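Let us begin with a simple case.
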Amino acid sequence: MGGPRIDWIKLTASIAVCQMAGVIGSAFTIPHITSWYNFLNKPAFAPSGSVIGVVWLVLYTLMGIAFYLVWTKDFKRREVKGAMDSFGVQLILNVVWSFLFFCLRSPLYGLVGIIALWLAIAYTMLRFWKVSKTATYLLVPYILWVTFAGYLNLLIWQMN
């Protein structure tokens, strides 16, 4: 009745694309957990794999909802297209980090990748702000987690 109409196809597609990034990242990650990652020196506060998995499931869902909120705005507007493009770049960088860190077994390359990812998320948030403030707020947990992950990545690089 009173609220905005939800386009369930776009919402589902938005969340699915983000979750698919998680699936691809997991394909880069999972084979290297027991053969490499578990043997690295890590700080005591490093979260377990099950915690990390749940956090990413929630974050990818929030990212998908944020993308949906931008996607449903007037697509002809330059701000909307730019916001969607920047979101795509950061989503690709999200997957690239898993490849750099786990497939290449390189905390250093992972650190470079996560810095690029953090900058891309911040830029995306700035672009989203012009289109949907709610979408920007939905990305706050994501950038906070990536900040934490970046710090953890730095410590793992230093400790190994």
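The second case is a distinct protein. As before, the sequence precedes its structure tokens.
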Amino acid sequence: MERLPLNSPRRLSRIGGVLYLVIIALGLLGETVVRGGIVVPGNAAATAANLRSMEWLWRLGFAGELVLLICAVTLTWIFYVLLRPVSKELALLATFFNLVSIAIEAAVALYLATALFPLGGAGYLKAFAPEQLYALASLSLRAHDYGFGVALVFFGCTCLILGILIFRSGYLPRAVGVLMQVAGASYLLDSFALILAPGFAARIFPAILVPAFVGEASLCVWLILRGVNEAEWNRRAGVPTARTPAALRPSP
């Protein structure tokens, strides 16, 4: 990549693309390797045994979730800077939706830590039967799943607005804007299905999230490889261009 000044919107977009890649990678690792490798659906005892034997991996996944959220806050600011020339009001609305989503996700991430509490060696836990402790740990995991679904409602709204802004921008591909709107609709459908019809949600998951992954991945890759069209961004932002040299100006 060519060297770009620190205040270049293209450089900023590439930084955003790298942050987006970190977010996607940590999210996939947390879902597939950590939770997917430890949580046994429908078997609280086996899940508890895995949590005890692989506590280090679970804690590593929790730490990764916090890093993901730090990157998400920074990326939210970058998206606001990049897209406010299109509509400052919509860019600000997308920022608010995303900050609410991040706050909820940070709060429900605590359930990942509390799932370990019933499985510790504290003396007060002797008042519970082992099966009760397993159930408490599983309830924490279930609460995390629903809380994350609520966070995705607000993130889905964020994706819809970002898609509209990208489509209108002229300095990012319209196709990416459409894909981000599809991603937002997918997140909203999945989250409301989880809340209103859990059985239906189980049938459509994870297929419903494939369009969401495609939309976010396409934006991530474009930001890293190409970034924004800087000349068009400057035009939309009203950034003055360098003055034409006197020798090249037309004579009166």
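The chain is about 75% helix and 0% strand. Confidence is low (pLDDT under 50) at residues 1-6, 243-252.
Keep these points in mind for the review questions at the end of the chapter.
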